[in-house]
Specification:
The protein is α/β, with parallel strands linked by helices. Strands 9, 13, 14, 15, 16, 17, 18, 19, 20 and 21 form a ten-stranded mixed beta sheet that branches. A seven-stranded antiparallel beta sheet has the order 1-7-4-5-6-3-2, with no helix packed on it. Strand 5 and strand 6 form a beta hairpin.
């Protein structure tokens, strides 16, 4: 029912598949409205002409439909009651639980002023060895997972949520199938970790345009726990390609001229607005942090597509998933993955031998790749080549595979064991002091 202060109009001047336009005064950008009973949001204001994006589409809306402006932008009620709950793109519960009581805050606000930020320096351990050993994550970092659509990236995200050493996990699911949604819900419930996970979910049954609200909802919750509660928060977003597709749907239906790969010209700033919410606050500001890991699915492995291309400019590295045919498992690819901030914690917040072990293992893995090429081309292999191939298979199975769940100390111990089983100390090329301390003794 309309309230006295709400502005009501009944003359729509233009309708497209996703938007409608009308003349209105005193309306704010991103303000919400109801159009013929459907939720909509202001996306463009030119003088007194206002364009509204209708989340459920404009089908069935007549030109004399009632348009009621709600006087506010999308918002979320935040409190400790968010923990353990599942919400839709509007912040409404979808788990059968009660409405959340708390302070109502507007979503999609500005990023934290760089002056208020601290250089990231805290380890975010995920429990996935392929990440923690070779591409260690740092609190306040933003990093994407690049994966082909047929890879189990949602399984990886669920595993990270279960294992990551963070106070709160915020999951933002965009375009999830019902199976994926139920998978996340069952995994979290069965593992007994729901009390520190907050989930915002848009499924394939919901309008695609609603996906645009999911990152802002997720980050509004993250900012509450990081700023107000001074907690270490990890935000998991899947899948940013579907988010960008929703941006393209809206821009195309608004007759905007598309840019590369049919994406809107604003793609870079749209993505940066999300990723730049990653922050490490200094101790005097409470020391909370927001770390963002976001899945970006690749179409046919195309890394030059506008979505991963723009993402790479914004983020601090990337993680790649790849199926290793030698062991029949999906691994975190050590060659194409990169965490640009790992040197801030490797060997400082982890054991002293971490940087040397990491470098030695990847170098030996590269030697194995060269040996594999020689073998495929019919060349004879040396004894060293054979040992590299054996090491690479064991290294993939025991460390790089996404189902390996161990802490950083165990990862380093396994790497040393594999070194000792396959090589002589001088072949591994690690500082003598570390070899004397950590090289495994036989017997």
């Amino acid at each position: 029912m309309a309230k006295a202060f709400q502005k009501i109009y009944t003359q729509i001047t233009a309708i497209t598949k996703a938007t409608c336009s009308l003349r209105a005064e005193g309306v704010g950008n991103e303000e919400l409205a109801m159009v013929n009973g459907k939720l909509a949001q202001v996306v463009k204001i030119m003088g007194d002409e206002v364009t509204l994006q209708v989340f459920q589409g404009t089908e069935g809306i007549p030109t004399n439909a009632e348009v009621v402006f709600l006087g506010k932008a999308p918002s979320l009620k935040v409190s400790d009651q968010l923990a353990g709950r599942f919400f839709n793109a509007y912040g409404d519960p979808i788990d059968g639980g009660p409405e959340v009581e708390g302070k109502e805050i507007q979503i999609g606000g500005p990023s934290v002023n760089p002056v208020r930020r601290k250089q990231p320096s805290e380890l975010i351990a995920t429990g996935i060895a392929g990440i923690d050993l070779n591409n260690t994550l740092v609190s306040g970092q933003k990093i994407p997972f690049f994966a082909d659509p047929d890879q189990p990236y949602n399984q990886v995200m669920a595993n990270v949520a279960l294992r990551a050493e963070a106070d709160k996990i915020i999951l933002g699911g965009m375009g999830l199938t019902n199976d994926d949604y139920l998978y996340f819900k069952n995994v979290f419930s069965n593992a007994g970790v729901l009390d520190h996970i907050v989930s915002f979910v848009n499924t394939t049954e919901n309008p695609p345009v609603e996906r645009l609200l999911i990152p802002d909802m997720s980050l509004a919750a993250a900012e509450y726990f990081a700023v107000e509660k001074h907690e270490k928060v990890l935000v998991l977003l899947t899948d940013m390609t579907l988010y960008a597709d929703a941006l393209a749907i809206v821009s195309n239906r608004m007759d905007q001229i598309p840019s590369k790969d049919s994406m809107p010209g604003s793609l870079y700033s749209d993505l940066a607005k999300i990723y730049e919410k990653a922050v490490q606050f200094p101790e005097e500001a409470g020391g909370g942090s927001i770390t963002i890991i976001a899945v970006t699915t690749l179409s046919g492995g195309d890394i030059t597509h506008a979505i991963p291309d723009n993402t790479g400019y914004i983020t601090e590295g990337q993680l790649y998933l790849r199926r290793d045919s030698d062991i029949g498992k999906v691994i975190v690819d050590p060659f194409r993955s990169l965490s640009r901030l790992k040197q801030l914690v490797a060997g400082k917040k982890t054991r002293e031998d971490h940087p040397q072990v990491m470098n030695a293992a990847v170098r030996l893995y590269a030697d194995a790749a060269n040996a594999k090429t020689k073998k495929e081309n019919g060349f004879d292999l040396t004894d060293y080549d054979e040992r590299c191939l054996k090491f690479a298979k064991e290294y993939s199975r025991e460390i790089l595979a996404i189902d390996v769940n161990i802490n950083t100390t165990e990862m380093l111990d396994i790497a040393w064991r594999l070194f000792g089983e396959n090589f002589k100390p001088e072949e591994v090329n690690i500082k003598q002091a570390l070899v004397e301390k950590y090289w495994p003794t036989k017997g």
